[in-house]
Amino acid sequence: MKRLSWGAKIGVMLSALLLGLFGLGTFYTFSSVSAPIPASAPLPQPNGYDFYVAAARALRPANPPVDAIGDKTSPSPAEAARNYAPAPPKVDCRQRQKLESAVTRAQNARA
């Protein structure tokens, strides 16, 4: 008996594999296995999209509008004061404690 070459062996194995895959596909396509599909759960009302829409409607544009593209990279101090809200002043922790104690003393004196 004559031995098969490597190419013939690979061809026989691939054809057997393809035939097996075709058989499995045919079996699972025509088999009558019925699996119950549960009904979908009801969606919550209001859902997340409703909250996003409500938040978008609640936004109020700045007056005058702040445009990151149209604004200058370094506006003059007058333009910055006109277009942007000022930052709160920086207070040192010791100054804050002194202010708080002075306020509480004034409130106690009134009472």
Describe this structure in words.
- This protein has 111 residues and is mainly α.
- The protein is built from four helices and no strands.
- 55% of the residues lie in helices and 0% in strands.
Quaternary organisation of the protein chains? single chain
Span of the ends, CA to CA: 117 Å
Kindly name the structural category. mainly alpha
| Sheet having the most strands | none
* Number of beta-strand segments: 0
Helix tally equals 4
The residue fraction in helices comes out at 40-55%
Q: Give start-end ranges of low-pLDDT stretches.
A: none
Strand content: under 5%
Order of helices and strands: HHHH
CA gyration radius, whole angstroms: 38 Å
**Shape verdict:** elongated
- Write down the overall mean pLDDT: 82
Topology, element by element:
Layout: H1 6-30, H2 48-58, H3 77-83, H4 93-110
In short:
The protein is mainly alpha-helical and 111 residues long.
Features:
single chain, 111 residues, mainly alpha, 4 helices
